[in-house]
Amino acid sequence: MTAARLILLAMLLGLAGCDQIETLLTDPKIAQRVADSKAIGSACRYGMRSIEDCYAKNEKASKAAIFDGWKEMDQYMRDNKIDGIPSKDEKPPQPVEEVLDEKASDNSKAKPKAKP
């Protein structure tokens, strides 16, 4: 009986030092979803997206896990002086061209319209 207790005690002490014990006890699908959400947050930070945009693009993912991943990547990038890379799927807005009619602008300056 003492040998069984010693083995049990050794196993418990071994597992107490394991930082992955929580993932071993939870459902693997839930742990995978949390890990995916953290990866999404990290990718958003590296892709120079705001956290709000990341939430909007990934509505089904856990917001807390996205934030954790975003925050971890932000700290990692600051510590290692890594610049983010703008994402290629979002194109910057096209500049609006203004067509100026010189005659119309000259006439409006020369003759102010009278108010009735």
Question: How would you characterize the overall build of this protein?
Answer:
It is a single chain. With 116 residues, the chain is mainly α. The chain has a domain of 52 residues. 62% of the residues lie in helices and 0% in strands. The chain has six helices and no strands. The longest helix has 19 residues. It is rod-shaped. The model has no long low-confidence stretch (mean pLDDT 79).
Any chance you could write out the topology, listing elements then pairs?
Layout: H1 2-16, H2 21-25, H3 28-46, H4 51-57, H5 63-79, H6 102-110
Helix pairs in contact: 3-5
What can be said about the biggest beta sheet?
A: none
Mean of pLDDT: 79
Distance between the termini: 108 Å
C-alpha Rg (nearest Å): 29 Å
Unreliable residue stretches = none
DSSP helix fraction: 55-70%
> Based on CA inertia axes, which overall geometry fits?
rod-shaped
* Strand count: 0
- The number of distinct helices, counting runs of at least 4 residues, comes to 6
Oligomer: single chain
- The computed structural class is mainly alpha
Percent strand equals under 5%
Topology order in helix (H) and strand (E) letters: HHHHHH
